[in-house]
Design goal:
The chain is α/β, with parallel strands linked by helices. It is about 35% helix and about 20% strand. The longest helix is centred in the first third of the chain and has 19 residues.
Length: about 325
C-alpha cells in the first residue's frame, strides 16, 4: 500500500462502518430484499475488478447453456444507454457495455440484459421469458436489494481479502466479513503448480465456514490467437508485437508471454478503457502486429482491423465435476 493510500485509512474506517450498517440492515430485514422463484445465481467479488468474473460466467454458460434456458443480467458498466435493456441484433458495446456484449456474441442461445437495479432487471427478463431455468447475475454480490438463491464469490489468488482492506485505502468494496454470505468461493488466477500444502495454508487464511464450498482455478490461455487472422500463439510471438491491455490486472498475461520468450511493447490502459482516436493512432504507430485481450478486442475491432486477441478460459485445479454438480443442482 503506497503512502497516499495509507493516508486515506481514516476514510476506510468510515466506509467500513457504513457498509456494515447497510449489510446489517439487509441481514435483519430492516431493508427489503426481492426474491424470485427462478434460480438467481450471483457471480461476484469483494475486490474492485480483476477477479475473473467474465471468464467464470463464460465457463458456466459453456457448461450449461445447451441444457438449460439461461439468462445473464449485468449492470452494463460504462454503457451509454440507461434503464433496462435486452440484447438483440441491434446491440453494441455502447448499449450493453464491453463484457455483456462480448458474452452476447459468444453465446447466442443465452439471453442477455443490462439493468442497474437487479430486481427490476429480473422482472424484465421474466416478463419476456417466463420459463427461464436460471438467471446468472454478473457482479451482483453487493446488490443487496436482491436476495439470490445462490452466491459464487471470486477472489484472485494474488490479492485475496485477507491481505486487503476496504476502500479507499484498500481495494475491498466491503469488509472481508462479506465472505460469509457466499455459498461457494472460487480462488481464481492460481499458479498451475499450486501444491496441496499451499492450498491448505491458503484455505486456512480465507477463514471460510465448513458449509462453504471452495475451489481453486487458474487461467488457461488458448493455443491460438484470433481476429485479423488465426495462427498459433507460439508462432505469433516469434516476432515483435504491441500488446494492448485495458483490464484491471495485466500481470498474469504479461507473465505468460514472458515465459514464452515474447518480445513486445506493452501499452497499458485502465480497466474498461474506451480507446480514443489518438489511442488507436498510438497503437498503430509502430507498424508492428497488435495483440490484445478478448475484452479489449471488442472495443478495438470496430476501428482497427489488423488486431489479434488471445482468449482465456477457466481451468479447475481439482474437483471440477463436483463444482458442475453443485451448479447444475442449483439450476434445477
Amino acid at each position: 500500500m503506497n503512502l497516499l493510500r495509507k493516508s486515506l485509512f481514516p476514510l476506510s474506517l468510515l466506509y467500513d462502518v457504513a457498509t456494515r450498517v447497510r449489510n446489517a440492515a439487509f441481514d435483519k430485514q430492516w431493508l427489503h430484499q426481492s426474491q424470485f422463484a427462478v434460480p438467481t445465481i450471483v457471480i461476484g467479488n469483494l475486490i474492485t475488478g480483476g477477479s475473473g468474473k467474465t471468464p467464470m460466467i463464460a465457463y458456466l454458460l459453456h457448461q450449461f447453456s445447451d441444457r438449460f434456458s439461461l439468462a445473464v443480467l449485468s449492470r452494463g458498466y460504462k454503457r451509454k444507454s440507461s434503464g433496462f435493456l435486452i440484447a438483440d441484433k441491434t446491440s453494441s458495446i455502447e448499449t450493453l457495455g464491453d463484457e455483456p456484449f462480448l458474452l452476447f456474441q459468444k453465446f447466442p442461445k443465452v439471453q442477455f440484459a443490462v439493468c442497474k437495479n437487479r430486481p427490476d432487471g429480473i422482472r424484465g427478463l421474466l416478463q419476456k421469458s417466463p420459463k427461464l431455468d436460471a438467471i446468472f447475475l454478473d457482479d451482483g454480490f453487493q446488490h443487496r436489494k436482491l436476495k439470490p438463491s445462490f452466491q459464487i464469490l471470486l477472489t484472485p489468488y494474488e490479492t485475496p481479502w485477507f491481505r486487503d482492506c476496504v476502500l479507499p485505502a484498500g481495494n475491498l468494496r466491503e469488509s472481508a466479513r462479506g465472505r460469509k454470505r457466499a455459498d461457494l468461493v472460487v480462488v481464481t488466477k492460481c499458479p498451475e503448480s499450486l501444491s496441496k500444502k499451499e492450498q491448505e495454508d491458503y484455505t486456512n487464511r480465507l477463514g471460510l465456514d465448513s458449509d462453504q464450498n471452495l475451489f481453486y482455478t487458474s487461467i488457461q490461455y488458448d493455443v491460438n490467437v484470433y481476429g485479423a487472422s488465426q495462427m498459433q500463439l507460439k508462432s505469433f510471438v516469434q516476432s515483435s508485437f504491441v500488446l494492448v491491455t485495458g483490464i484491471a490486472n495485466a500481470k498474469p498475461l504479461t507473465s505468460y508471454l514472458d515465459q514464452l520468450g515474447a518480445k513486445y511493447n506493452h501499452l497499458e490502459y485502465g480497466d474498461h478503457h474506451l480507446f480514443s482516436a489518438s489511442d488507436r493512432q498510438n497503437i498503430l504507430s509502430s507498424g508492428l502486429p497488435v495483440l490484445t485481450t478478448e475484452k479489449d478486442y471488442v472495443r478495438l475491432n470496430p476501428y482497427l482491423k489488423d488486431v489479434h486477441y488471445l482468449p482465456i478460459s477457466v481451468r479447475f485445479l481439482a474437483d471440477e465435476d463436483r463444482f458442475k454438480d453443485i451448479i447444475s443442482n442449483q439450476i434445477r
